[in-house]
């Protein structure tokens, strides 16, 4: 796979507070790339920098071109769905295509196909208040994917769901990623979720954040959450994070 994103010498300050202190990593095209780390270490800030929503020191390149502002080549999916309550499912999904001036007939065809891919056929005319949390997140995912971004940025998108729905959505997200082969950068607090979904996991240190570890997840899909190798990788991550929290200067 070819490299799609490269981050070098990245630093971020909020006034005098140094949040990120010299991060370097790259992401491959079509990769499911997870980011985990202690609470408050700057995971969401890092995602917002890649989205072009934060100023920073250092370099972030998308296909060799510097990221300096938001663009249609990157789309972000948030924890709280960020759906328009006055729009139906199809109205929410087609929104980005309207901004891109896609002809209405073509845009509706594309939106309906993405609704089918995320498993929401039959709910095209439902409003967000009529949907469960998992269904709302599917709408948010469809709205992001239909615009065909270079990179899909996901900020703890499943954390507000109950345990059973979260597992179902992890399975669905893995299925959708395998179907679309979209490059995904995914922030999560859940070690199990990271191991279940990702090709590689970037572990950030406590603030000011550095790259503590880069963990390969060479497990075949679909993944067995109770398999020996799955549990071994999870335990390795737990130990790294535990050292970050309980070690010298931990939070």
Task: Summarize this entry quickly.
The protein has 251 residues and is of the alpha/beta class.
Task: Give an overview of the whole structure.
The protein is an alpha/beta fold and 251 residues long. The protein is 36% helix and 25% strand. The protein is built from 8 helices and 10 strands. It has helices at residues 43-51, 89-93, 95-99, 104-117, 133-145, 163-180, 191-197, 228-246; strands spanning 3-14, 17-28, 32-36, 57-62, 65-66, 74-77, 151-155, 183-187, 200-204, 211-216. Strands 6-7-8-3-9-10 form a 6-stranded mixed sheet, with helices on both faces. Strand 4 and strand 5 form a beta hairpin. Helix 4 crosses helix 5 and helix 7 crosses helix 8. It starts with a strand and ends in a 5-residue tail after the last helix. The model has no long low-confidence stretch (mean pLDDT 92).
């Amino acid at each position: 796979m070819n490299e799609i994103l490269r981050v070098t010498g990245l630093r971020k300050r909020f006034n005098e507070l140094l949040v990120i202190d010299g991060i370097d990593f790259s992401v491959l095209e079509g990769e499911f790339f997870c980011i985990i780390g202690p609470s408050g270490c700057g995971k969401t800030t890092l995602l917002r920098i890649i989205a072009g929503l934060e100023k920073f020191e250092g370099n972030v390149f998308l296909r060799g071109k510097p990221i300096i502002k938001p663009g249609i080549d990157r789309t972000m999916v948030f924890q709280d769905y960020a759906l328009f309550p006055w729009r139906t499912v199809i109205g929410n999904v087609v929104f980005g295509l309207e901004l891109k001036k896609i002809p209405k007939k073509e845009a509706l065809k594309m939106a309906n196909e993405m609704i089918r891919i995320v498993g929401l056929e039959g709910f095209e005319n439902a409003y967000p208040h009529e949907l469960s949390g998992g269904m709302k997140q599917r709408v948010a995912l469809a709205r992001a994917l239909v615009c065909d971004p270079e990179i899909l940025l996901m900020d703890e998108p499943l954390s507000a769901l109950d345990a059973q729905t979260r597992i179902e959505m992890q399975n669905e997200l893995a299925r959708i990623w395998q179907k679309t082969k979209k490059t995904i950068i995914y922030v999560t607090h859940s070690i199990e979720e990271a191991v279940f979904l990702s090709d590689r996991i970037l572990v950030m240190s406590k603030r000011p954040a550095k790259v503590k570890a880069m963990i390969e997840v060479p497990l075949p899909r679909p993944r067995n959450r109770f398999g020996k190798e799955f549990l071994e990788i999870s335990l390795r991550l737990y130990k790294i994070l535990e050292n970050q929290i309980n070690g010298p200067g931990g939070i």
